[in-house]
Design a protein that fits this description.
The complex is a heterodimer of chains A (187) and B (265).
Chain A (H helix, E strand, L loop, with lengths): L2 H12 L3 H35 L11 H18 L11 H14 L5 H10 L24 H6 L7 E6 L2 E6 L4 E6 L5
Antiparallel strand pairs in A: 1-2, 2-3
Chain B lengths: L17 E6 L7 H17 L3 E4 L10 H9 L3 H5 L3 E4 L23 E5 L2 E5 L7 H13 L4 E6 L14 H13 L2 E6 L5 E4 L6 E5 L16 E5 L4 E8 L2 E8 L4 E8 L2
Parallel strand pairs in B: 1-2, 2-3, 5-6, 6-7, 7-9
Antiparallel strand pairs in B: 1-11, 4-5, 8-9, 8-10, 11-12, 12-13
Classes of the chains: A mainly alpha (187), B alpha/beta (265).
């Protein structure tokens, strides 16, 4: 039997090597999870657009009251539209697993010391938030290290990954609203 | 401030130069912030800077109308009334929606650039340096033919402050972009002191986080430091005249604590 034909026959009989199969499945499963996560984020954005369409559009203004009012009204409208929102709606359990896996890439030996230093020097925040919370005005935002952002799925503008304590938070910055949380992600 | 005597600056005040002031971590609403603002106004009578860069933590503790009045509109009212424009960048104490506040001239954007004379200024959001912003920065710097490229943002890449220190993750990501694209001056806040670092690969880094806040005696001795000031508040003035940039750092009491000249490479 020709060698190529032999290989094809063996593969047909036994399938590809276990490692290759597991790797392919792992990558495909991860991609599917991220696609699902991105769809959920898009669905949220559509919900927010619908909620915002009932408000006066916010443009650059001399009035801090208008900015604050828009933020509060938007948050109120979104909460009404997401009354049953709970932890895990966007950061599903598989997404949480995948995001933890991706964060391990951010903590490779070459990058880990810089990421840790960035987290420490950024005025760490000790705060436990819940879905639907407003981010408190008196609490500074901890900066999210660029290496972490580089390794996580891309988000649309105005939706951000933020860190509070050990938790990864999904924050709508325009509504100043917590959308979801993965707890105890960071050491 | 009618009747206030104008002060002499260490700047050459050449014709057609680009003149601006710089403040960082200013938005406390406390007396020291107002004192710095009054000094800025005194120097404005002579220097006539026409815009101010804000290095973040523009407003502490919330951005209600009362906060904006006490922590920005009132202290800088004479400058604002004189037509001085403020260009803000976001710090970790800032509500990202400050980008909608017209007097901050952010154009509703978290990060943006603008030109003045032969200089281009890049206001970055170091609280959230995502790949999209990094791509924008790279493209914006690359296509600019400005003689002077000046970047400013909240978290310093280099700092000898004991409380925070540098953001080395941010540094690994954006310092190469600065070096590859001709950035000459970088201004940051966050550390509540003033520090001028010795140049790194041709780039002059300044930390100015004490225009309202202050962390006294917070600078550690360092071979990287060219000058430090951590016993009172301060602001900076800069003047770009052709291929030279002049700077002067002034304390809350009106004393010059640092000054110098940077040549364009």
């Amino acid at each position: 039997m020709r060698p190529a034909l032999l290989v094809v026959s063996l593969l047909a009989a036994f399938g590809p090597p276990v490692d290759m199969l597991a790797g392919d499945q792992s990558v495909n499963a991860g991609s599917a999870v991220i696609q699902d996560f991105e769809k959920r984020v898009s669905a949220y954005l559509q919900l927010r657009r619908n909620a915002e369409s009932s408000l006066h559009a916010l443009k650059a203004t001399d009035s801090p009251e208008k900015i604050a009012d828009h933020q509060n009204e938007l948050a109120h409208a979104v909460r009404n539209a997401r009354k049953s929102a709970r932890e895990g709606d966007i950061f599903t359990s598989p997404a949480g697993v995948e995001i933890r896996r991706l964060l391990r890439f951010a903590m490779r030996p070459a990058d880990a010391p810089h990421v840790r230093q960035s987290l420490q020097h950024a005025e760490p925040v000790r705060l436990h938030l819940h879905v639907g919370d407003t981010y408190p005005a008196h609490v500074p935002l901890q900066s999210t290290p660029p290496t972490i952002l580089e390794n996580l799925p891309k988000l649309p503008p105005e939706i951000e990954y933020r860190i509070t304590g050990r938790d990864l938070v999904l924050l709508d910055t325009k509504a100043n609203l917590v959308l979801d949380i993965i707890e105890n992600v960071f050491p | 401030m009618a009747g206030t005597a104008a002060l002499e600056a260490d700047l050459p005040l050449r014709q057609d130069s680009v003149r601006f002031a710089v403040i960082g971590d200013n938005g406390t609403g406390d007396r020291p912030q107002y004192d710095v603002a009054e000094e800025m106004e005194k120097f404005h009578e002579t220097v006539k800077f026409d815009f101010v860069l804000m290095l973040g933590d523009n407003i502490y503790g919330g951005s209600s109308a009362a906060d904006m009045k006490r922590k920005f509109e009132d202290p800088y009212k004479p400058l604002l009334d004189s037509g001085v424009k403020f260009y803000a960048s976001l710090g970790n104490h800032d509500n990202p929606n400050e980008r909608f506040y017209k007097p901050f001239n952010m154009g509703e954007k978290r990060y943006y650039s603008f030109k003045k004379g032969n200089a281009e200024f890049y206001a970055l959001d170091s609280t959230y340096m995502d790949p999209t912003q990094i791509d924008w920065l790279t493209n914006a710097l690359r296509k600019s033919n400005a003689a002077w490229k000046i970047c400013y943002f909240h978290h310093p890449l280099y700092s000898d402050g004991k409380f925070h220190g540098p953001d080395t993750d941010l540094r690994t990501r954006i310092e190469p972009i600065f070096e590859a694209n001709g950035v000459r001056v970088v201004l940051s806040g966050h550390e509540h002191v003033y520090e001028r670092l010795k140049p790194h690969n041709g780039i002059y880094y300044f930390v100015l986080g004490n225009s309202g806040e202050l962390r006294p005696h917070n600078l550690r001795a360092s071979p990287d430091a060219a000058k430090g000031f951590d016993t009172d508040r301060a602001f900076m003035m800069m003047e770009i005249a052709g291929d030279q940039l002049f700077f002067e750092t002034v304390s809350r009491s009106g004393k010059t604590v640092d000054s110098g000249e940077i040549d364009r490479q």
